[in-house]
Amino acid sequence: MKKVTLLLILFYVNLSFSQQKDYEVFNTAINSKFAELGTTFLKNNTLIFASSKKIDDDKNFLKDRRKNNGQSFLEFYTGIVNDKGDIIETGKFTNEIKNKFFEADITFSPDLKTVYFTWNNFYSIESKEDIEKWKTLRIVKATLNENFETSDITFLPFNSETYSVRSPIVSNNGKKLFFVSDMPGGYGESDIYFVDIHTDGTYGKPVNLGPNINSAYDEQYPTLDANETLYFSTIGRSGKGGLDIFKSEFKNGEYQKAENLPEPINSKFDEFGFVYNNATDSGFFTSNRKDGIGNVDIYAFVPKELLCKQDFAFNFVDEKTKKEIDNLNITLTNSDNQIVEVLSDKNNLAYKTQLKCNLTYKLIVEKEHYRPFETFITTNNTLNNKISETYNLTPLDCNQVVEITILFEDNNKMVDNCTVLIVDNKGSVLTQPVDETHKISFKADCNTSYNVIANATNYLQSEIAFSTDSAYNTQFKKEITLTKKSCNQTITGVITNTNKLPITANVSLFIDGKLIEKQVTNNFNFKVNCNATYVILAEADNYQQSEILIKTGANANIVNNASLELQPKICNQVVEVNVNTNTTDFELNNVTVALYSNNVLMEQKNINNSNTVSFNLNCNTSYKIIATATNFENNEISFKTDTENNFKINKSITLTAKKCQQKIELLVFNKLTNQQIKNTKVSIYSNNMLLEEKYIANNNALIFDVACNTSYKIIGEAENFESEQLEFNTDLTFDSSTTKQLYLNPKPCIQTLTLSIFNKETKEALQGAKVTIFKNNEILNSHLLANETTSNLELNCDTNYNLKVELEKFDTQFFEFQTTNIYNSELNKIIYLTPSVEYVTLGGQKLINTNNIYFDLDKADIRNDAAIELNKVVSYLINHPTIKIEVKSHTDSRAPDNYNLKLSDRRAKSVINYIISKGIDASRVTGKGYGETQLLNECSNGVKCTEAQHQLNRRTEFVIIE
């Protein structure tokens, strides 16, 4: 068997491999004179493979290649599988400078976020002593990012320095990891194992797949399909020769006896790295068989029944000239828009290929100066059918660029409103403005005649003509010269009456008594020559005519102002206008009356106390009067005067009041806290009819639109609050805004505390406990759990309580409890009571059982640790109300006798005061200090003792006296 360093890329597929069909095996297009091996699909029909071919595009990368361990250097590449089952290379798999996957088997988790691979170049081999280190192979795990770059590399826990683990493969569900190892206890030189991958990232123990898979020789290169069928290579079973590929189906929870894959998959040479795509009933494997191109090659296998092919020949001609076209870029893609083939035949002008039967292809053709061409080709099921097609390609329009420079005979550098009009012989017209460079450019069709016409203010129009040729992208440069026009000026003016208001008139322009131009307007504009004298005459009905003399100067583009004022003719009349209203609810305020003629405002007056105004009018004239007032709709009348001089006209205008509306801004508050309430529903009524509902989501105000002079009622509702209502009336003030406040009473907030009581040592539920509830050191309630183990207590929300739990033969438990601010919340608390060991007998005396009590040096203050023990004494006295005790405080002998006697007496009194402060009657507690008079050992004055012996004498005793 050839010794070949193999990198297997594992592929997860959907169905099982069938050995019943006839397959055709062929050498894939990616193979070279170097080694190509191993394939795996990343997604759809995209795969990666390994190759030892040398790429010199990264000097640093080549510098890091290992040269001293006898292993082949491999890199990963990507490819796609076309519809012929072949592989088309698309580039490198990863751009990592120091590829972590050198010479390593590799497998991915189903989500492509985790990779496992064999690491055999972890050590740098610099000497013969290091050679043995890299021979032990290990599997490592790493995290992958979207660019397939690794991080967080860790070794798996079942690696060893005494044997190798390699060739990892993850199961389809990601829950098992298969691998090859020569660990002790196997069936041969190396066996196939698996471990469970736990959800917490740990692994199970390695499990051997057993004799159905493993033999006395090496089993190598495992892969799995979607049905968990196992494929591997070995020489340990009957085969064709060298490494053969075997498979074992997974049935009834175990792998069946391995079976040899038939020819043409296996041969007398080495076959390994088998991957199978059940969806297409095809796949790939690696072999060193004799017909290969390199050291080892990747071979494809496809069912022969899918190899039906047809011969296609394509010819392409110019749509206009019908001449054949060469040097085309022709691409065939499949239904997934993936490239199947790129065609080329520059000599015979015919492009030939073979296509599979019963498939649809897209033909894409590209050539300079032609429109891209696409069409679909659908083959039938006739084997070896020969088809020839001719297609027309549409030539692109031939274009050239023309640059036009505008020249001015007076060398003017700043010319306004210069434009160029471009007209071709097809009737197409293009207009372009000219900027300060005096140049324009445009795309022109080939073989086309053009006229270019230039215009500019105060210059004469000029044009040129030319024709383009047949050359693509040629550039032409042309020039046009503009000649200066003669001198011109402008006369403008406004025609007004004596009130300075514009009026429309017949305006005539004369020179030397000859009429030049007439305009009907109130704002005239005449174009005139320089150095000339003109007369402008204005005429209007009911006005006296007026004229003005204008002399123009020598400079062009001068604007002459010649406004005229027309005096009205003598005939006059008077109109008296009375303004009233149809309602008594609102008074007329700020009333204005305006007089118009021909839609021009003639005069405007404010109304007087009698609601009457008057205007002087011209005779035989049409008028319009418009009356306006605050909070009223405008109204108008129209009429025409006659020819009677000094005639008086009476007119009346009635104004209708606008709809009166106001706005109410509502804020809702907690009546107890004066804080705004969120999540409030507010309803507004009028005459007991609901008009609108709104909700306050945050601490915002609600805005209601209401009518004037109307009664309303507002009702506010919020969770855990009593609903309240607010009634009010609006007045007659237009567009006023009023703020209202609505106060809601909160409902009482109650919570239920379920108290469960257990024995701290046995965890058993306890009955008969007494629970006392305190608030601010005052008893609120007491509960006796006679035959119950739990107590349900109703407590106010957001309140701090103290609870005391008492039970005979158990230490009394005190604790604080804070309720929340959530209505009707149910709370739970478990209390563990410690059984009391109430007393011990020592020296014929009954003592309450406590740990020793310690004081600071030369002090009698009760420390926190001492208070814990004293609370046990208090609990005992509470549970035994008839018991009386004597407190006896003792010291050791290491200070003067009298000092120790006084110190112990102060400490005894301090203890007595503490017990009394906890509610114990003073008549039940007596005591004093005994100094060193009652030592428990021989450690008296002058006797050398250990610290532990002295500590035995420093004690406080609680003697039960009755």
Summarize the structure in short.
With 962 residues, the protein is mainly beta. The chain has 5 helices and 71 strands.
Care to describe what's here?
The protein has 962 residues and is mainly β. The protein is built from five helices and 71 strands. The strands form 20 sheets. A four-stranded antiparallel sheet has the order 1-22-21-20, with no helix packed on it. The protein is flat. The protein starts with 22 loop residues before the first strand and ends with a strand. Residues 1-19, 57-71 and 121-128 have low confidence and may be disordered.
What is the alpha-carbon Rg in Å?
A: 55 Å
Assembly context of the chains: single chain
| Helix percentage range | under 10%
Strand order, largest beta sheet: 1-22-21-20
Per DSSP, what share of the residues sits in E-state strands of 2 or more residues? over 45%
> In CATH terms, what is the fold-level topology of the largest domain?
Neuraminidase
Q: Given the C-alpha coordinates, what overall shape results?
A: flat
Instruction: Report the top-level CATH class of the largest domain.
Output: Mainly Beta
Tell me the number of helical segments per DSSP (H or I, 4 or more residues long). Answer: 5
Global structural class: mainly beta
- Please tally the β strands and state the result: 71
Number of structural domains:
8
Average pLDDT score:
84
Uncertain runs? 1-19, 57-71, 121-128
Could you describe the largest sheet, including whether it forms a barrel?
4 strands, antiparallel
